[in-house]
Design a protein that fits this description.
The protein is of the alpha/beta class. Helices cover about 40% and strands about 20% of the residues. It has two domains: about 130 residues, Response regulator (Rossmann fold); about 90 residues, Winged helix-like DNA-binding domain superfamily/Winged helix DNA-binding domain (Arc Repressor Mutant, subunit A). A hairpin with a 3-residue loop joins strand 12 and strand 13. Helix 6 crosses helix 7. The longest helix has 15 residues.
Length: about 230
């Protein structure tokens, strides 16, 4: 699961990155509105943690523009307008919270905040993004609990490493769509990480050994997708 943190306070940004990385997320950090727009145009993120007071503008403009899917100078691709956004800010007045949510933010959390609460809100946003109300996500015989990072198949607990879990989560979010190796890598690594050339193949191989050889389908030259749910 890949998160974009847009925060100009170095201490807060570093703390978010370290804490979320320990919890199994791949985290990228931007400190300006311009850098955030560039990142959103070039990559796909599972969620954005967004400060409002940034050096070159207001984070609210990112929410507004993202939901309107406005093209930006110098950005070749359009951001995904459905990307979940959680505003993290010191602005704690009720009218400011209402304004942020009315702009299109999915949630609003006032600094200082508790990391457990932040992660719970992140998980809730991402569940809603895939149309899932329950905290446990079911797909055929699979039951995935993002909070506990557990996988069960037909009630049997399946041990999965953080990276294996991230690959499975990415495929689950795609719901049958084919994901290329690069798209899966984007869920696993943040900027600057060294990416092994066959890492995705290795994680898929491990998951097939644990979930069954037919659980993940390879489309040669294209990518991978979860086998269709059985009726």
């Amino acid at each position: 699961m890949r998160i974009l943190v847009v925060e100009d306070n170095e201490g807060i940004a570093a703390g978010l990155r370290a804490n979320l990385a320990q919890r199994g997320y791949a985290v990228d950090v931007c400190v300006t509105v311009a850098d955030a727009w560039h990142a959103l145009g070039m990559e796909r993120f599972d969620a954005v943690l967004l400060d409002l007071g940034l050096p070159d503008g207001d984070g609210a403009d990112i929410v507004r523009g993202l939901r309107a899917m406005r093209p930006r100078p110098g950005v070749d691709a359009l951001p995904d307008p459905a990307t979940p956004v959680l505003i993290l800010t010191a602005r704690d007045q009720i009218h400011e919270r209402v304004a942020g949510l009315n702009l299109g933010a999915d949630d609003y959390l006032v600094k200082p905040f508790d990391m457990d609460e932040l992660e719970a809100r992140l998980r809730a946003m991402m569940r809603r993004a895939v149309g899932q109300a329950s905290p446990v996500i079911r797909y055929g015989a699979l039951e995935i609990d993002p909070a506990a990072r557990t996988v069960r198949q037909s009630g049997r607990l399946v041990e999965a490493s953080p990276r294996e879990f991230a690959v499975l989560w990415a495929l689950l979010q795609a719901r049958g769509r084919v994901l290329s190796r690069q798209q899966i890598e984007e869920h696993l690594y943040h900027w600057g990480d060294a990416v092994e050339s066959n890492a995705v193949e290795v994680y898929v191989h491990h998951l097939r050994k644990k979930l069954g050889p037919a659980s993940i389908v390879t489309m040669r030259g294209v990518g991978y997708f979860l086998a269709p749910e059985q009726p």
